Amino acid sequence: MLPRDTFLQGLKPTLHIAHRGGALVAPENTLEAFRLAVEQHRTDMLELDVHLTRDGEVIVAHDDTLERCTDAEGPLAARTLEELRRLDAGFRFSPDNGHTFPFRGRGVRLPTLREVLRAFPALRLNVELKPDVAGAEDVLARLLTEEAALGRVCLGSEQDAIAERLVRVLPDACHFYPRDALAAFILTLKAGEAPPEDARYSVLDMPLYFGEVRLVDDALLRAAAERGKWINVWTVDDPAEMDRLLQEGIGGIMTDRPDLLRQRMDASGKPG
Is cis: bond before 65, omega within 30 of 0? Predict the structure, then answer.
């Protein structure tokens, strides 16, 4: 049995977390982006999203359709892994609003989760299961068990139903709060009440702002610490906000600009 706190053991604020590998500096959710984040920007954790292919493979991608990031169109789940491997996952990436496309035709592909786990065998991952498909949680659980990766992966979904199924099949893994459970924690705290206890979830992956309201404050940081919860905020690309979060001692910063976050962390002189 895996101890519930395995994922969090040894972690110290503030973590450098590359959101989709760094979606503003390289084609998101690709090995090229992940390697850049790890090798050049010394990221502590990769944040990524997974779907199931038509033939039941776990592939790394954010959208359930292909047109935003590849040279194809239509639903990802309608294609086999072999079909998806033929696509150009660098086709749409442009660092200058469409003037240039430096990764087109360079063999950038959609990776499987298994490939990512093996490419970075010592790195922690924050993995969101996207599709609400019965049995997807079983496929993901089996893969993580086969790869002996449960101790270095924090799992979850924005959707509470999917997150609950993940907890059911992997009760001893680290899980992050889904949307409704996260809202309950934060809103009760903002109302001056004690947030509900929920032992299923250990990590608050949360937005920094809700509209104009900055959600991270002393009360939230204190309440999370008292309950043994870890906080990662997304998606922070503004250097002033990075500096402020570093001063506040936030658990982790998810960013599409891992290059900029590394600069701010190095300049701060803080560990991480």
Answer: no
Amino acid at 267: A
Which of these, 170, 201, 167, lies nearest to 186 by C-alpha position? 201
What type of residue is 12?
K
Q: How far is CA 89 from the centre of its chain?
A: 19
Q: What is the pTM of this model?
A: 0.96
Report the 10 Å Cβ neighbour count for 178: 23
With 0-12 / 13-18 / 19 or more C-beta atoms within 10 angstroms meaning exposed / middle / buried, residue 8 is: middle
Summarised one tens digit per residue, pLDDT across range 101-152 is: 999 999 999 999 999 999 999 999 999 999 999 999 999 999 999 999 999 9
Alpha helices in the chain (DSSP H): 31-39, 81-85, 113-119, 136-146, 160-169, 179-190, 218-226, 239-248, 258-268
CB 238 within 8 A of CB 208: no
Q: Rounded to a whole number, what is the largest CA-CA distance in the chain?
A: 55
Residue 75 one-letter amino acid: P
Spatial distance between the Cα atoms of 49 and 205, rounded to a whole number of angstroms: 13
What is the pLDDT at residue 270?
62
CB contact at 8 A, 202 and 228:
yes
Which residues are CB-contacts of 216 (< 8 A; sequence separation ≥ 6)? Answer: 208, 231, 233, 245, 248, 250
Strand, helix or coil for residue 233: strand
Amino acid at 78: A
Residue 183 contacts residue 196 (beta carbons within 8 Å):
no
Quote the CA–CA distance of 7 and 261 in Å, as a whole number: 23
Residue 20, token pair as written in the block: 């989709």
Q: How many residues does the chain have?
A: 272
